[in-house]
Amino acid sequence: MYTLGVVLTVVGGIGIIGTIIWTVLDNNKKNKQRDKIIENLRQQQYKQHNQNINRQEHTEQPINKNTNHEINQEINSLPKENLI
User: Fold this and answer.
1) How far from 37 is each of 5, 26, 62, CA to CA, in Å?
2) How far apart are CA 52 and CA 38, in angstroms?
3) Secondary structure of 6-57 in the HEC alphabet?
4) Does residue 62 carry a pLDDT above 70?
5) CB atoms within 10 A of CB 72
């Protein structure tokens, strides 16, 4: 009986150690997968952000040109005699 008890204790200890190792390795694998997903999402957000910036730049340029033209017209229409 004593020998059986020792054998069961050793087998149980090996089982516990194996379970701990398996859990740690599995968690590392899950963490790597999670990190890859997070990095992919960041890259997608970065690309989308750059696309939004590029779209805004294209729409702002004509608005600025029109505004500058209107300001120049107003300045040119002012009476020049009263200017110092």
Assistant:
1) 48, 17, 39
2) 21
3) HHHHHHHHHHHHHHHHHHHHHHHHHHHHHHHHHHHHHHHHHHHHHHHHHHHH
4) no
5) 10
